[in-house]
Write a structure and sequence with these properties.
Radius of gyration: 27 Å
Largest sheet: 7 strands, mixed
CATH architecture of the largest domain: Alpha-Beta Complex
CATH topology of the largest domain: Spore Coat Polysaccharide Biosynthesis Protein SpsA, Chain A
Number of helices: 10
Strand content: 5-15%
Structural class: alpha/beta
Number of strands: 7
Number of domains: 2
CATH superfamily of the largest domain: Spore Coat Polysaccharide Biosynthesis Protein SpsA, Chain A
CATH class of the largest domain: Alpha Beta
Shape: elongated
Distance between the termini: 57 Å
């Protein structure tokens, strides 16, 4: 079931809301570089936050996945920095099937900052990828910033991210350095990113950080689903977008600590397999399925051949009743079936090739006569 943006409720005006919860998650100590962010401009008084006169330049999309998200903290901190930079902005808060204290804060913010804060509510959890897609349909800015539901990175780093966009980058991927979360979490994250760099040949060190800035076209042209939002920089780079990585100052970290359950590691492994297939074999499925099926065929043929040699050449008893021979036959048949999947995929790609595009045209240049003015007319007149 998918939710259409026009069907999603917008946060109504609220008469008031609770103060910040005293039992909010504990923030880790800040261990960053010696440099300190300059004094920021104070946030606008909420009562004087006027609606935007025109379309915003920057749209901040914040997926809210738990009822205790720090919505007011995120909006206040990022809005203050965007005001300091002189960037017209808006916030699109997408609630992934949750309400609670975070929704009450969103109602207050929608009343205090009309036209600057919009809250969308999905009727059930669909995941962060759908939250981003839904938020993009409501967002109006040409530059999209995605943020977690708490202030994970120093808001001052927005200046560096937007400067990279102004410098020609299509997407800016942050690298939290140094990290402040527990050592075991850092080791697991480093191993995960190293595997991604090795498999995809993508030079990114922190794909788990979703505090990103990108041009609107990236989210419009790169399809994301499931947990693919984690790999957005790698997939965008694969499709020809200019992706740069910028070091940012890490402030705090939510989430589990230590070892996670086996289901989490299994899902991550499947996600890696999925992004490898999407990035390398979308238009060449037979190469993937043919390789896997060929391995099954080879192992099955070797097992069957070895048993046949033992039975008929060396006279080592019956052949067809041996378990290894049956396993070899099974692997051989499985290999044929897997290759068949690849052939079916190739047929589908062939019939739909005109509608599939995994590249983008960055620039079109047409050589013209130097006497022309570039628009088909002569410099001297029509």
């Amino acid at each position: 079931m998918s939710a259409r943006p026009e069907d999603l409720p917008v946060a109504p005006a609220a008469e008031g809301g609770p103060e910040a919860r005293p039992d909010a998650p504990h923030d880790a100590g800040v261990k960053g570089p010696k440099r300190r962010a300059p004094k920021r401009a104070p946030a606008l008084p909420v009562a004087d936050a006027a609606p935007l006169a025109g379309p915003p330049e920057v749209s901040v999309i914040v997926p809210i996945t738990t009822g205790d998200g720090r919505v007011r903290e995120v909006v206040t901190a990022l809005a203050a920095e965007l005001e300091r930079l002189g960037r017209p902005h808006e916030f699109v808060l997408v609630f992934d099937g949750v309400r609670g204290h975070a929704w009450l804060e969103a109602e207050e913010l929608a009343r205090e900052r009309p036209g600057r804060v919009v809250a969308l509510a999905l009727d059930q959890p669909f995941g962060e990828s759908l939250c981003l897609s839904t938020g993009l349909q409501r967002a109006r800015g040409g530059i999209v910033v995605t943020s977690p539901q708490y202030v994970q990175v120093d808001p001052y780093e927005l200046q560096n991210l937007l400067a990279a966009i102004d410098g020609g980058a299509d997407l800016v991927s942050p690298w939290r350095h140094p990290r402040i979360d527990p050592l075991l979490n850092r080791l697991q994250s480093a191993a995960f990113n190293r595997v991604i760099r090795w498999i995809l040949h993508a030079p990114f060190h922190d794909l788990n950080c979703t505090f990103r800035a990108m041009r609107r076209e990236v989210l419009e042209d790169v399809p994301i689903h499931g947990d693919m939002y984690r790999f957005l920089p790698a997939i965008a780079a694969r499709q020809g977008f200019k992706v740069v990585e910028v070091r940012v100052r890490h402030l705090k970290e939510w989430g589990g600590k230590g070892f996670f359950g086996p289901g989490v590691y299994a899902r991550r492994a499947l996600d890696v397999l999925g992004v490898v297939f999407v990035s390398k074999f979308t238009l060449k499925p037979l190469r993937f399925f043919g390789t896997v099926g060929g391995l099954f065929l080879l192992v099955g043929a070797l097992l069957c051949g070895a048993i046949l040699v033992q039975g008929f050449v060396l006279g080592d008893g019956p052949v067809f009743s041996r378990s290894l021979f049956l396993v070899g036959v099974l692997l051989f048949v499985l290999g044929v079936q897997v290759i068949g999947f690849g052939l079916v995929g190739e047929i589908i790609i062939f019939t739909r090739a005109r509608n599939v595009r995994e590249y983008r045209v960055e620039k079109v240049w047409e050589g013209r006569d130097e006497r022309d003015g570039g628009d088909g007319t002569s410099p001297g007149g029509p």
